[in-house]
Amino acid sequence: MATATPVQPELLRTLPSDAARQLLWGFADRYDLQMLVQSARAVARGPVARLVANGGRNSHEWTPAKAEMLEAFDSSGITAVFMDPEEGGLFAGPKNLVLALVAFELAWVDGGAATASLAGCLALAPIHERGTPEQQRHYMRLAAPPQPGEDRKPWRGAFCLTEPIPYVGVDTGMLNGKIRIVEWKPGEEPMLQVEKRGRFITNIGFANFVTAAVDSGDDRIKGSCMVILEEDDPGIFDRGTPTRKMVHQLSSTGDPIFNLRIPASRIVGGYDIKDGVLVPRHTHSEVIEAVFRRTRVTVGVMTAAKLLSAVEPVIRYQRGRFRGAETATPGSVRYELGLQAREDSLHRLTDVWATGEASASLAFAAARTFDELDPLEKEIEKLYAERGIMGGRAKAKLLREAADQAAALVQLSPADARKQPQNSDLLLRFVMLDSLADVLCPAAKLWNTGWGAQMMREAVSLMGGYGITEDCPGFLGNKWMDAQLEATYEGPEAVQRRQLSVTMTQPLFLAQLRSWVREMREIASEHPGTGACALATAMTMWLWTLDHLQHSKDADGGKLYQSARQGVTFPLADALCWLMAARCQILDVLRLQRQGAEDASVSEGLPGLVNFLTDLCHVQSARASGEVARICAELVFGYDRHPAWDEQGTRGCWHKDELDTLEGLIPGINSYALDVVGSDGSHPKKAGPCVSCHTAGPFLSLHTKLDACLTGSRLAKDRAAEAISKLMIPEALDYPA
Amino acid sequence: MSNAYHIVVCAGVVPDPLQTLEPITPATVPALKNEMMLPAVLDPWAAHALYEAANLAAHAAGSKVWLVSAAPKAKLQQVMMNVAQKASFELVPIDSPASGFADAHAVAALLATVIQSIPALDRSRLLLFGGWESASRGAGVTMQLVAEQLGVVDQFQGVDQLTVQPDGSFEILERIEGGRHLVSTCQGPPALLGWATGNLPEPRNNPQIGMANMRTIMPALQRAKAGPLPQDAIRYLSVTPPKQQRQTRIVKDRSPDEIAAELLEWIVQD
Ligand SMILES: Cc1cc2nc3c(=O)[nH]c(=O)nc-3n(C[C@H](O)[C@H](O)[C@H](O)COP(=O)(O)OP(=O)(O)OC[C@H]3O[C@@H](n4cnc5c(N)ncnc54)[C@H](O)[C@@H]3O)c2cc1C
Q1: Is the pLDDT of residue A138 over 80?
Q2: Which residue is closest in CA terms to ligand 1's atom 50?
Q3: How far, in Å, from the CA of A449 to the mean position of ligand 1?
Q4: Do A13 and B37 make contact, defined as CB atoms within 8 angstroms?
Q5: For chain B, what is the domain count?
Q6: In this structure, is residue B234 part of a structural domain?
Q7: Which domain holds residue B130?
Q8: pTM for the whole thing?
Q9: Which residues of A touch B37 (CB under 8 A)?
C-alpha cells in the first residue's frame, strides 16, 4: 500500500505586502484608495511619528507643532477625503472605506493623529447626513482645503454632544444644552439663543464651528435638534481649559462653554413652523444615530491598526534580545532567534496578530457594507417618493414587510430559484444590508476596541520593560492606553452592547446568521484548516442560547432576555462579536486566496501567506468558539438555582439503602451511582447534587461537539508560531520612535 | 516652444532600503531573497531626477515629462500609487525583471529602444534624466549607455543642480571629491543628466496629481510590453553581502561629525 509522503507546507516569507492587504480588505480595484493610503502613510510615518518621537504628546495644550499636523492632513488629501469633488473633495461616492483606511494608517503610528483627523469629519457628519443642501454646500466648502491658487484657511469643526456631569454621557437623552427664541419678527427668521456646555470635546482648541446637540428650552420650539455654532457668533464662545488626558494627546480636547445668538437657519436639517411652533426636522438623537452609525466603524479600525502595527517591533525585539552577549554568537539559536526560541513568546504574538487580523477584517467589512448601503439609502428615498410613501409609519411598514420577505429568502438554499430577488430587488437588498450594518458597526466598535485594548496589553508585555517606556519602538505603550479611549468615545462599550442587544435579535439578522452556519460548513469542507467548522458549531450554540434565553426564566421566575437584564443581553452581544470577527477574517483570507492566484503582485509567496493567515483564522476561530461556549454555558446554567441537599434537591438522588438492595440484582451499581444519600442524611462533600440537565440537553451535546471541533487548532498555532520565527522582517522600523 | 523641454526620466524600482537584502543564487543569475515580495520604491537617485524634471518642466511652458521604467509591471503599479502623487508625468512602462544583477548594457539597450519609440518626443528638445547610480545596480553606466545609443553626447554625472541661463544655456553642477562641485556650461538640450540628490526635497504626496496621472498610467501599465533581458549576458562567480554587517540603530540628536567618525571606525575595522 502506498503511503503519502507529507509535504512541508510553504511558510510565510515576509510581512504581508500592500498588494496582499488590498486584496484582503477588498480595495484591490480602487487605485484612488490605494493612493490615499500611501499619502496618509507618508504623513503618519513622517511628520506625525516625528512629532510623537519629539515628545509632542507630553502636553495637553494645542501647540503649533500639533497644528502643523493638520496642515499636513490638508496638503496630503486627508482633510478632503470626507468631501465630494464639487465641495473640494477628491472623489465621489461613499467614503466609509476610505475613511477607515486613512484612520488605519494614522492610528498605525498614533491614535491622537487619527482622532484629530476624524473629529473634523465628525463635526461635518451631522451636516452631511441631515443638513439642508445649503448647509451642506456652505460648510463642506469652508472645510475643504484650499485649492491651488486659493488663499484661505480651511475651517475646522468640533462635534459637541457630551455635557458636564450629570448630563449627557452614555445616555444621550439627558440633554441640558438649550435653545430659546429671543427674537421673532413677523415674516423673518427667528433668532435663537443657544446655551450649551461641552465636556471632552475634540478639536475644540481651534474649531471655527461646532455642531452641538441641544434641547428646547422654549414652548415655541418642539423637541431637540442639532445646531451649528460659529466662533464669531455674538455671545460667548469659550473653548474652556484643555482636558488633562493621558491618551491621544495629539488631538485637542476641552470643556467649552457656549452662549451664542444664532439664526434658526443654523438648525441642522432646517425646521418647519407649525401652529406658531418651530419644529426642527430632525431631533438630535436622529442625527446622532445617522452619524455614529458610520463614524464608529473608523474607531474600530484604529485599534486594529495598533495590534497589527505591533507585530514588526515585537518580532525585532524578540529576535535581537540577546545579540551582543558573549554567549550569543552569530549562528547560535540565542543569537538568531532570541526570545523566539521560546514557545510562549511566539504563541502570544500569534494571538496578538490573529486578533489584529480579525479586528481589521471585521471593521473593514463594516466599512464596505456602509459603502454599499449609502447609495441604496438614497435609492430608497427615491422609491418612497415614487410610491408616495410619506411618514415614518408607512415607511417602517414597508421595510418590515421587506425584511420578512428577505428573512424567508435567506433561509432558502443558494440553488433555489426563488432566492434570486434577494440580490436584485432594491428593497430586499437594502433591508438585508441594513440589518447587517446594524450589527457590524457596534460589533466592530465594541470588540475591536475592548478586546483590542486587552490584546494591546499583551503586545506591550511581549516587549518586557521596554514596552512601557517612551522609547519603545512603535510607541506600543501609548497605543495600549490609547485603545482605552477608542473603547470609550463615540459611545462606550455599554452603548454598543445595548444597541447590539436589540439589532442582533431582529429576525432578518438571525436569518442571516443561520445562513452563515451553512456557509461556514461549506467553507470548512473545502478549506478544513480555517476553523470554519468550529465557528459554525459556535454559531449554532449562540442561536440555541439566544432562543433559550428568550423563552426561559430564572430561578425566581424573572424573564431572562429583556433590555433591563444587561447581565444576559450584554454577554450575549460580546459572544456574537467574537463570531462576527472570526467569520470576516475567514472570508477575507478566502478572497485573498481566490483573487491572489491571478494577481501578479501577490502571486509570489502567496501559498505561504495564505497558509499562515489560514492558521491565524483557525487560532482565532478556536478562541472565539471557546469564548462563545464559556459565555453561553454561564448564561444557560447560571440563572438556575443549584440543587441543595434538601428534600427537593435530593429527589433524583439514590439512597444508600436502595442501592444496597439493587446491588444483589445489578452487581457493581454502588460504584456507578453518584450523589448517594445515606440513611442518616449524609452526602458527598459538594455544593449539592449535580444538576440534571434535561432542558439543556441539546446545549450539552452542542458543547461536547464544540469541544471536539477545536481539534487541530493548537497545531495551527504551532505552525503559525513557526512561521513567525522564520519570516523576514525589515532591518529597521520605517518610522522613528 | 524654444524653451520647452522633453524630459525623459529613466527610473527602475528597487526594494525599500529598510528591507533586509540577502543575495541568493537559485539559477545562473543571482537574485535577492523574496525580492518580489518586498515593498519597493522608485530607485532613490532616479527619483530625485524625477523631482528635478518636474520642477524644470513646471518652469518652462510646454514642457513634458516621461518616466520610463523597466520593472515587473505589477510591482511598478504598486510603486506608482506613491510616485504618481509626487509629480506630473506620463509613464512609459516596460514589463521586465527589475533585478540589480541584470546586465547594464542590455537594460540600456532596452531603455533606448523604448525611448526612441515615444511618439511625441522631440529628440532635439530631449533631456535625458536618470540617477548617476542605482540603489540596486551600482555600475553607474546605464544612463551613459542609453545616452550613447540615442546619440546624446553632452553628458553630466553626479548632478546636483541645473540652472537655466537667460540665453537658454544650462549651468550644471556635478559632484566631485571633497564636497565640491564642477561647474559646466552646456548649450541646452539634448543632454544627459545623471542626478545625485539634487537640491529639491521629496515632494509631499498630492492625491490630486496622482489621480490625474493615473488616468494615463493605468492604461499604459495594461498595455506595457514585455522587455525580456538576456539571462546569460553576465556570469557571476559569486555574490555575497558585505562581510561586516552593521546593526541598524536609531539614535537621536547625533552630530554629523560623530556619525562620520563612527562610520569611519566601522569601515577601517576589517
Ligand atoms: C478624549 C475624549 C474625546 C472626546 N471627544 C468627544 C467629542 O468630540 N464630542 C463629544 O460629544 N464627546 C466626546 N467625548 C465624550 C465621550 O463620548 C464620553 O466620555 C462617552 O460617551 C462616555 O460618557 P461619560 O464619560 O459621561 O461616561 P458615563 O455615561 O458616566 O458612563 C460610564 C460608564 O458607566 C456605565 N454606564 C453608563 N450608562 C450605562 C447604561 N445605560 N447601561 C450600562 N452601563 C452604563 C458604563 O460602564 C460606562 O462605560 C470624548 C471623550 C474623551 C475622553
Answers
A1: yes
A2: A200
A3: 14
A4: yes
A5: 1
A6: no
A7: 6-226
A8: 0.94
A9: 13-14, 17, 604-605
Instruction: Give A698 Cα–ligand 1 centroid separation in angstroms.
Output: 40
CB atoms A737 and B210 under 8 Å: no
> Is the pLDDT reported for residue A670 higher than 60?
yes
pLDDT over 80 at A5, yes or no: no
Is the backbone of residue A668 left (phi > 0), alpha (psi -120 to 50) or beta? left
Cα–Cα distance for residue pair A495/A505, rounded to 1 Å:
16
Sign of CA dihedral B247, B248, B252, B255: positive
Residues 46-85 of A with CB under 8 A from B: 53, 72, 75-77, 80
Give the per-residue pLDDT at A119. Answer: 95
As a whole number of angstroms, the distance between CA A653 and CA A673 comes to 9
Domain span(s) for CATH 2.40.110.10 in chain A:
158-292
A196 φ, ψ (degrees, to nearest 5): -150, 135
Nearest CA to ligand 1 atom 4: A200
Query: What is the CA(A170)–ligand 1 centre distance, in A?
Result: 5
pLDDT in tens, B18-77: 988 888 877 777 888 888 899 999 999 999 999 999 999 999 999 999 999 999 999 999
Model ipTM value: 0.88
Q: Write the DSSP string, B223-241.
A: HPEE----SSSS--S----
Cell of B240: 555575497
Please, what is the Cα angle at A313 between A311 and A316, to 5 degrees? 105
Amino acid type, A152: R
The arithmetic mean of pLDDT across residues A449-468, rounded, is: 97
Q: Which three cell numbers stand for residue B151?
A: 546619440
Q: Which of B13, B37, B204, B209 to mutate: most A Cβ within 10 Å?
A: B37
Which amino acid residue places its CA nearest to atom 19 of ligand 1? A489
Considering only CB atoms, which chain A residues are within 8 Å of B77?
A: 601
List, for residues B104-154, the tens digit of each pLDDT value.
Answer: 999 999 999 999 999 999 999 999 999 999 888 677 899 999 999 999 999
Which of the listed CATH numbers 3.40.50.1480, 3.30.420.40, 1.10.540.10, 1.20.970.10 matches domain A18-153?
1.10.540.10
Query: Count of A–B CB contacts within 8 Å?
Result: 100
Burial of A219 (0-12, 13-18, 19+ CB in 10 A): exposed
pLDDT tens readout for residues A495-513: 999 999 999 999 999 999 9
Which chain B residue's Cα is nearest to A75? B206
Give residue B67's pLDDT: 98
- For residue A733, list chain B residues with Cβ-Cβ distance below 8 A: 18, 250
Residue ranges matching CATH 1.10.540.10 in chain A: 18-153
pLDDT of residue A2: 55
Whether residue A226 has pLDDT greater than 80: yes
* A contacts of B74 (beta carbons < 8 Å): 19, 599-601
B254 falls within a domain: no
Fold (topology level) of A158-292: Butyryl-CoA Dehydrogenase, subunit A; domain 2 (2.40.110)
Q: What is the pLDDT of residue B244?
A: 62
Q: Would the pLDDT of B2 be above 70?
A: no
Start-to-end Cα distance in chain B: 57
Residues of B in CB contact (< 8 Å) with A are 16, 18-20, 22, 33-34, 36-39, 72-75, 77-78, 81-82, 84-85, 204-208, 210-211, 214, 218, 247-248, 250, 252
Give the model's pLDDT for residue A4.
62
Of A13, A732, A736, the CB nearest to B34: A13
pLDDT for residue A646: 92
Cell of A277: 411652533
What CATH number has the domain bearing residue B148? Answer: 3.40.50.620
Tell me if B250 is assigned to some domain.
no
Pick from A18, A90, A731: which is nearest to B19 by CB? A731
Note whether residue B1 is domain-resident: no
Which DSSP category does A508 fall into? H
Average pLDDT over all residues of chain A: 95
Mean pLDDT, range A315-328, rounded to an integer? 93
Tell how strand A257-263 and strand A235-238 pair up.
antiparallel
In whole angstroms, give the CA distance from residue A648 to residue B76. 77
